[in-house]
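Hi Q.,

Before the meeting this afternoon, I wanted you to have the NAP prediction in hand. No need to reply - just skim if you have a minute. The sequence and ligand are here:
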Amino acid sequence: MPAHLGLGLAALGRPGYVTLNHASDLGHQYDPASMEAHAHEVLDAAYAAGIRYIDAARSYGRAEDFLASWLRKRDIQPGEITVASKWGYTYTAGWSTRATQHEVKDHSLTAFERQFRESIERLDGHLSLYQIHSVTAESKTLEDNALMDAIARLREKGIRAGLSVSGPGQDIAIRRAIEVRRDGERVFDSVQATWNLLERSAESALEDAHAAGVKVVVKEALANGRLTEANHEGNPVFSPRVARIRELARSRATTIEMLALGAALSRPWATIVLTGAATVDQIQSSVAATRLGYDDELERQLRSIILDPAEYWRARSSFAWN
Ligand SMILES: NC(=O)c1ccc[n+]([C@@H]2O[C@H](COP(=O)([O-])OP(=O)(O)OC[C@H]3O[C@@H](n4cnc5c(N)ncnc54)[C@H](OP(=O)(O)O)[C@@H]3O)[C@@H](O)[C@H]2O)c1
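Predicted structure with the ligand bound:
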């Protein structure tokens, strides 16, 4: 079955993010009421287009609050949409785009308990998947037995457990996560990982996860807005590759973003591909990507632009917040 599109709220819940044109996507309107109205417009467009999977996080500013007010306003019933959120980072930007630190990581049991209470305060009844935010190959998070016990108990509340992974060792973190068990059952039902035309190093671990029955959610399919027509950044690592994708997109009468999303949607192991669409137009072109004919010839041509994961994540860590 082809993957379904989901909507991620990283760009919609707070003034600052690492995509290229975040300020103009938000119309330079940062007051919470305007941002909430904008998030609701994008959610309405996503819902109208058939998107039924929404991804938030405690650290995405007020994303959970905006999602909760939208669910109430549209009278969406629990279970009608898969509502996923994450814990593990605390938002610290103080509603500014220029904070010295935008989020602080803490994967302790205390942080889990606090942030779970906060998420439930907002999304009770709707929250269906709760994920650890950004486990890396270096993280000791999955070795914390008391934390794993607490996460395994989410099931008693009807909430599935998941994790997102980041960094050049995503494959290592994924393989470890698949093995975590309590009472003979796998603790994590879902893994969210970065996969895009430049960074495919998690692919075989994601295949294994899928084969084991773990749902795979793809994030950053557009490399945080770098795999788009709007990217004129002049990054020495990304630019020649973006130019090559542009050429191939032209030859198929499509756009870079449609090709990049189409590639992710065509992965046989993917359950959901998140679009980080920050405007209604971006929702519409994301949905159009579900109809793109992604074929073996494109796959062969695009294999030549894959980056070494260490190089990709080094470039990723230099993306500026705006
Ligand atoms: N560690 C984690 O757990 C983690 C990390 C990152 C993301 N995520 C999740 O993954 C989601 C997606 O990631 P992302 O937003 O960082 O990256 P993305 O989906 O790769 O990029 C999204 C950005 O691309 C640009 N864009 C241009 N045309 C677009 C189109 N047709 N459709 C969608 N976007 C278009 C927009 O930025 P501009 O207009 O500014 O160019 C948009 O905000 C997030 O919302 C979040 O839910 C999770």
